[in-house]
Amino acid sequence: MSSYSLDNLRESMVKILNPNNNNVAGSGFIIREDGYLITCHHVIYLLNSLTVEYLGNIYQADWCQEFSNPEVDIAVLKINVDNAKAVPIINPPDLSTSVKVYGFPPKQKKFFPEGIDVDAANISHSAPVNILSTYRSTQINANNPWNKLPQENSTFLSHRINTKVDSGSSGGAVFAPDLGGVVGVIQCSKSDTSYVIRWDNIRHELEKLNLEPEKNAVCDFLEDIENNFKYIQLFHSKQQVVLKEQYIPIQVSLETKRKDVEDFFIREIESGKELKRVYAMKAMGEETQRTQVDWQEAKNKHEEIMVLADPGMGKSTLLRIEAGLKAAEERLNLASNSSSQAKTRIENVIFPLFVRLSDLDEQSGEVIDIIPEIIQRNYPKTAPGILHLLKQKLEQGKCWLFLDALDEVPKENRNDLKDKINRFTRNYPCKIICTSRIVGYGGAFVDGAKEVEIVPFSQKQTEEYIQTWFTNAANYIEDDSVSAEKLITELREKPQISGLTQNPLLLSLVCSLYQTKGLELPARKAQVYQKAVDYMLREWSQNRNPVSEGDITKKKRLLEDLAYHFSCEGKEVFDSYELYNYRHGNEKLIDELCEEDGIIQKLTREGEQYLFLHRTFQEYFTAAYLNREIEKNQRDGIAKARKLFWKYDFHETLILLTGLMENPFILIKAIAHEKDDIFKTQLLLAGRCLAECQSDGEDNQSLVKEIVNRIYKFWRRYNYPSFIESTVVTLGQSHSQMVDKLIFLNYSDSIVRREAAEALGKIGNPIATQGLITALNDSHPFVRMKAALPLGNIGNPMATQGLITALNDSHNLVRMNAAAALNKIGNPIATQGLITALNDS
Q1: The CATH number of 6-208 is which of 3.30.70.120, 3.20.20.240, 2.60.120.10, 2.40.10.120?
Q2: pLDDT tens-digit map of 64-102
Q3: pLDDT tens across 658-674, in order?
Q4: Which of 247, 310, 257, 234 is CA-nearest to residue 619?
Q5: What is the value of pTM for the model shown?
Q6: Which CATH class is domain 744-841?
């Protein structure tokens, strides 16, 4: 049901008055806010002057000859009024709905002085109706331009409705409540049937009035999508900034580190020795395939894409900006076309549709039937006008589907959803871009889709993001002494934070925290969320009144309970009933969390479904709940956490939990000593948890050394898989023991040296950088090549001289990577080195 109602229509209705007796001659309605209105020509053809009543006021009207057409019984009048309430004109080719006819029949005036609506259960196309047969007299006495008859054989294209309307309703609106607009003008009744003048009769006149119903409906819908994805909100302020202005273009890797990529080898190869041989063969064969490209290149090359990334890397933001930009592009293209081209352009318009995969999972039926329901729910004001087009476009492949967050779908439902999606893709050629977290992704969700992985921010991208953030937040900075340059300098001096700032979500939180007076930057992920939540409930809240510590504690407890409960149920979207089941006298706190603090938000503007600000906040509060349980009873709390070890969707929660615990090594030890699989899932999880902790104490150092050594040996044995390397990099950014092992590049195997150089490049801290500079002198060209390029991404001037020397390397790929790195560093010495390199043969 549309938000446009009969009450809205009533504000547009007009009485056409007989100037001789002031009685109602017929009905009409406003079609443009500057006073243009429409009625039937047979209502006015005998009148010697044109007088109308609108919202209780009497106006003299002008007949607009260029917009009127007596041959189809249409008259357009103009009254002198501003900001009139115009009806939405819609012209769906196929109608399958009920309608209401609104008019001012004199016989109903006693009981309904403001007009009456008559229901018709259905409306359908009918044969053309002869117009003259509906005129009550052919004798005209007045001598105005509108006092004329149509031609004897004139007809109009009609709809037929199964109800009778009273005299005086002619010229009134035929309103389709389910579609949210007016589908025609009531003309006449015969027995128990009435006839409606279709908009098709005056398509040209409507175009001249800039009232092309279909084109305008499509433009309005596209603009609604555009506006829905146009802004993002800064964490520390309710101020919105334009997403396009803050967004930093990303790169994607055409290789992914998805967790289950080696399932085939588990099934087919039992021998560890043989498995190692397969790994090595695959590594040699893939050297040339490890490619990073701009996202736009990948998007333009593939019709179906699965975008994989870790939490907070911007998967949903990528889809949102793509949907918004595509909507703007299509709207502007359509709006710029002349009326004569409009129909052709409408047929070619692409609808960019953002849909959560959990919504497709929760609704029964086929994708082609579910999507229109979701779109109507998400865009109740504009979707009704294009629903007749939407299914056509889905069938014709004229929709881009942005399907977000497979990881939010319960694991047990994913195979059925996969089948549902692939039935759609086999029959309808729409472009599809899906997203999922890497952990828990089973692979091959959309048949034939290219899997890509979002690459963490380089130092250059991080610094560009910070500069842009401070520009956009210039009027909302709490501490005037901070600046983008100072934050960039501080991050360069704190390499332990570098891993955090490669993640866009965490980087945006770091920026908001940095502008807060007197706050030292957190060095761990859990600390970033902890500080951010504290400030969101205090200084950053819309409620600027003092908040008691008791209320803040209650809010945190409530959020922790909600997060744990919904996480255990596999839910990230919950309705108002489920939310308020947890109120327990906390209605006020829940309202504040939604309306003032912004930690819980509405899924759609008009709906009654809610979710946490970001999934990682739900995971943080779930971790905080578990930490509270451990503090109450360590044995029982650890037992609760242990149940989550093999649930991939809870791994991020466990990582955050170790960052919150007073003594996380109890949990890390339990994870590290859990019976493991061939992928060392628990060992790698222990390594990621370790990256969240300080390793104080001799016993703890012993455990750290054990975990680092085991992961390092695993990496050396199967050095190509990126799911191992990512843990090596994460550990290396926070624990020097891993960097020390990688930096020892005197391995006899050049493949190991090459992979060590690649890992050091991704770690990117000063110690790793020194190792890369040393690797520029390696005996194997592939190692030198792998060492050169990341030095440009790191941007450390210390590397400049070594890279200039590499411009004279005997291997052309080393020279090429060295030149690319110097170009990224961009200082005067690097530039001079490049100028010299122009003479390279």
Answers
A1: 2.40.10.120
A2: 999 999 999 999 999 999 889 999 888 876 677 889 999
A3: 999 999 999 999 999 99
A4: 310
A5: 0.69
A6: mainly alpha
